[in-house]
Write a structure and sequence with these properties.
Number of domains of chain A: 2
Main location (chain B): membrane
Family (chain B): Belongs to the ABC transporter superfamily.
Largest interface: A-B, 63 and 73 residues
Oligomer: heterodimer
Largest sheet of chain B: 6 strands, mixed
Helix content of chain A: 55-70%
CATH topology of the largest domain in chain B: Rossmann fold
Distance between the termini of chain A: 49 Å
Number of helices of chain A: 11
Number of helices of chain B: 25
GO molecular function (chain B): ATP binding; ATP hydrolysis activity; ATPase-coupled transmembrane transporter activity
Distance between the termini of chain B: 49 Å
Helix content of chain B: 25-40%
Subcellular location (chain B): Cell membrane
Number of strands of chain B: 20
Shape of chain B: globular
Strand content of chain B: 15-25%
Largest sheet of chain A: 2 strands, antiparallel
CATH class of the largest domain in chain B: Alpha Beta
Order of helices and strands of chain A: HHHHHEEHHHHHH
Organism (chain B): Dictyobacter vulcani
Radius of gyration of chain B: 26 Å
Chain lengths: 276, 594
């Protein structure tokens, strides 16, 4: 009932030592960026069907339960649905429209439904790939990978390391805030507030009650963390010249995965072009 | 050496409000390898002093030199000081940065820009000293609080500091683990010459320290060996502190003419003279020791069988935290127990034993994953059961008052419950007034005060008032004493005792320590790893003190004393409920020896 940590799966890493979890984070990041870019480019159902096949292979390698990954999607389904309806209704076909239903500027056409479905499919793939990356990559790996890939930017004076530290801390606070919200909700429920009741407006106004104590405790925590980091010399020696304990080593699997991803991506691009 | 000369510090907001400085005109020296304990009530300036030592704050007047380097310096010198002075805070969650143990420990050396091999060597060494090697690759969020605290210390140690400051590190851990932690830091001082500066509210923790500093109102009140400090019992009590129970006991017994006791007793062993070899151990058997047979005959207590007429009854109730995720964890395992109306019950178990989950179930905040939960003989799982009614009858005072005070002013916060019930304004006002007065806060004085400006003890009272204003039949306290100084603990104890007097209120008190619980409740349920191990009256529970200690449950000081003397006097009973009983026990043995 009042157990948020069960539903908020954002940014959670599942350490199940699967092939995906063990992959070099730099390679994983490159692959993920490639695939995410690909899904935003693809525009034919055939290409997406092939993409689905690839994702099934990916999923088998991750040893994760599909239900768990999809659960965190649940709160967004209503938004996706609304977005879909709107897109269909406001879709203006390029050529002479074949309306199934039409009124004023609103209308339903076959082309509209197809195009809107494609958008939903694209969002789902995007969501799946991003979640997969976060579930199979620990935060340390993720940020180390980014730092390593971003090293050239650091050289030309963009403080990529500092930016990544900001990301690390922001992500670190996600589970802490979830626990905090859960705690506050429990305390309020115990004193007679019912979160499950009322209309949408009432529910939102109840959530607003959580905000102030959450900000107060959040600022306190950030302050302590800031002191703790400075006490351990974060930001010393003038710039941000941190050295790292970890070193990456490319394995054969990583190279194979990278080649495979590039191959699949180019193949899908070709399929997509031919299909049009 | 750290040297403070006439140091004064005031927070700017307090200065404007005309509040005297947090630290006033302090001069002192801390030498390498010394173990120093700092005690003082909440708000006496201890934490400010430690932040000054660690160069997090800079004094407004006076100077602080760390190995000749002034903390007011900038640049390289400042980082040099921060490297030499390591600091560990109360709550490990607030200070751990990385996500795995090994990365956390490496964070400091990485900031200092060492080579990879140097970082690896330092990390390895720090992990080894704190016995964390087996946990190196684990994710920090999976660790228990006490392990997190050890990781925090390892992280500081990897900086190879000369001074290690611990700001109330044992607030969130208890029993055996707290003892072990303190032993480890003392070993660091003796073996590696690191000065340890330990802030605490627990007097018996510091009897083995080299030096104790007592602070009051931003000044140093006393500075000396534990022996010297604890000799001044009356003065300590005047500033809201205390002496260890063993010292108090020694004081009383000495006044009764026991000649062999030193003027200041610091360890239980000093209470009774060592045995002469001629006296055979059989000679001193006073009472037959509580036999195992006797215990097992008492063991199958009927309390554990759920009684459906009770206010709460659990039957084989289990709860799985984060069910259907890879992180699923069974927090409650087939728990059966019943609590009758008007009882005062203790739920005692180490951290992670399922106490908080059990409280959530009892308060109707979560439903058991399997098994049955009856409230006033009604099955809560049936359709149409009114959960809101259960919640309105059961009040919970959660562990941290900060997460249950959500309004701006005290009056508004206390009236939160009544407002949800939509009572009349006059009624709400009456409830707020009664509840505030019940917790000993004046209505006129406190109702318009800002909640964020309250002290720790006041916050806890306001939180309790907020629960009382809902007019509950049951009130549950989850670890209410955490973080309070001796005076705050005494006051809260008195308050709970008064609440207990009111006839139809059922009080449930959850804690990882048997201290306080033992004197308050009439039944104790001992929990471990999500199951109820045994349930009994306090005296019977204490007879098994040894097992409880092994479970990492903190024992009352009286029992600790009895337990440590027992190796020499096997006849000594450990089921002593209070100081008077322990005195009587000791007297029996004393009379026999002499």
């Amino acid at each position: 009932m009042l157990e948020l940590s069960r539903y908020v799966t954002f940014g959670q890493y599942v350490n199940n030592s699967s092939a995906l979890a063990r992959m070099d984070p730099r390679v994983k990041l490159i692959c993920a960026v490639l695939l995410i870019g690909l899904t935003s480019f693809l525009s034919s159902y055939l290409a997406f069907a092939l993409c689905l096949l690839f994702c099934i292979v990916l999923h088998r390698m991750s040893h994760l339960s599909l239900g768990y990954i999809l659960r965190s999607l649940r709160p967004f389904i209503i938004f996706l649905f609304i977005a879909f309806i709107f897109q269909v209704l406001f879709y203006t076909p390029a050529k002479a429209p074949q309306w199934l239903w039409h009124w004023w500027i609103l209308g339903i056409s076959q082309a509209g439904i197809l195009a809107s479905l494609l958008t939903i499919v694209r969002v789902l793939f995007l969501y799946y790939l991003a979640t997969m990356l976060s579930f199979t990559t620990s935060m340390v790996d993720l940020t180390d990978g980014m730092e390593s890939l971003g090293a050239p930017l650091q050289k030309i004076g963009i403080p990529i390391n500092a930016l990544i530290m900001v990301l690390v801390i922001a992500l670190k606070f996600v589970p802490i805030f979830v626990t905090e919200v859960e705690r506050l909700m429990k305390a309020q429920t115990a004193r007679g507030l019912n979160f499950d009741q009322g209309n949408l407006f009432q529910r939102v106004s109840k959530m607003a009650l959580l905000l102030i104590p959450l900000f107060v405790s959040g600022f306190k925590k950030v302050k302590v963390l800031n002191i703790a980091m400075e006490a351990r010399c974060y930001g010393s020696s003038g710039g941000w010249h941190r050295t790292r304990l970890r070193a990456f080593q490319l394995q054969r699997f990583d190279v194979l995965a990278l080649i495979l991803t590039i191959l699949v991506s180019s193949m899908l691009v070709i399929v997509n072009i031919i299909a049009f | 050496m750290i040297e403070l000369k006439n140091v004064t510090f005031n927070y700017s907001t307090q200065e404007e409000a005309g509040i005297p400085p947090a630290v006033q005109d302090i001069s002192l020296q801390i030498h390498a390898g010394e173990t120093v304990a700092i005690i003082g009530h909440n708000g006496s300036g201890k934490s400010t002093l430690t932040k000054l030592l660690a160069a997090i704050l800079v004094p407004q007047s006076g100077s602080i030199l760390v190995d000749e380097l002034p903390t007011a310096s900038l640049g390289a010198d400042l980082w040099q000081i921060r490297q030499r002075v390591g600091i560990v805070f109360q709550n490990p969650d607030d200070q751990l940065i990385a996500s795995t143990v090994i990365d956390e420990v490496a964070f400091g050396p990485e900031n200092l820009g060492f080579s990879r091999s140097e970082i690896a060597a330092r990390v390895q060494n720090a992990l080894q000293v704190l016995e964390l090697e087996a946990y190196a690759q684990l994710s920090i969020s999976e660790l228990s609080v006490s392990l997190k605290q050890r990781v925090a210390i390892a992280g500081v140690l990897a900086m190879q500091p000369r001074y290690l400051i611990l700001d109330e590190p044992t607030t969130m851990i208890s029993g055996k683990t707290a003892d072990q932690l303190l032993k480890t830091v003392q070993r660091l001082a003796h073996e590696q010459g690191i000065a340890v500066i330990h802030i605490t509210h627990f007097m018996q923790e510091i009897v083995s320290f080299d030096r104790v500093i007592v602070m009051d109102a931003g000044r140093i009140l006393m500075d000396g060996t534990p022996n010297e400090i604890f000799a001044r019992m009356a003065e300590l009590q005047a500033v809201g502190l205390d002496v260890p129970l063993v010292t108090q006991l020694g004081h009383v017994l000495r006044a009764q003419g026991w000649a062999n006791i030193p003027p200041v007793v610091l360890t239980p062993e000093q209470l009774l003279p060592p045995l002469d070899l001629e006296q055979s151990s059989s000679a001193i058997v006073v009472d037959p020791p509580v036999s195992a047979d006797f215990l097992s005959a008492q063991a199958p207590v009927h309390l554990s069988v759920p009684d459906p007429s009770a206010i709460f009854a659990l039957k084989e109730a289990s709860y799985i935290l984060r069910k259907d995720t890879p992180f699923a964890h069974e927090a409650l395992r087939r728990v059966s127990l019943s609590i009758r109306a008007g009882q005062t019950v203790g739920l005692v178990g180490p951290t992670g034993s399922g106490k908080s989950t059990l409280i959530d179930v009892l308060a109707g905040l979560i439903k058991p994953s399997s098994g049955l939960f009856f409230f006033e003989a009604e099955n809560t799982a049936i359709k149409g059961f009114n959960m809101a009614r259960l919640r309105s009858r059961v009040g919970v005072v959660f562990q941290s008052p900060d997460s249950q005070i959500f309004e701006e002013t005290v009056g508004k916060d206390v009236s939160f419950g009544p407002r949800q019930r939509k009572v009349t304004l006059a009624e709400s006002r009456r409830l707020v007034q009664e509840s505030l007065e019940a917790v000993g806060l004046s209505y006129e004085d406190f109702r318009s005060r800002y909640t964020y400006a309250l002290s720790g003890g006041e916050k806890r009272r306001v939180a309790i008032a907020g629960v009382l204003a809902c007019e509950p039949k049951v009130i549950i306290f989850d670890e209410p004493m955490a973080g309070l100084d001796p005076r705050g603990r005494r006051e809260l104890f008195g308050l709970i005792q008064t609440l207990k007097q009111s006839e139809d209120l059922t009080v449930i008190y959850a804690s990882s320590s048997l201290k306080d619980v033992i004197e308050l409740v009439d039944t104790i349920h001992i929990l471990d790893k999500g199951s109820v191990l045994f349930s009994d009256v306090p005296r019977q529970i204490l007879a098994q003190a040894h097992e409880l200690h092994a479970l990492d449950i903190a024992l009352p000081e009286t029992v600790q004393i009895a337990l440590s003397l027992r190796s020499r006097f096997p006849s000594l009973r450990t089921d002593v409920l209070d100081q008077a009983e322990l005195e009587a026990e000791l007297r029996k043995i004393h009379d026999h020896i002499l």
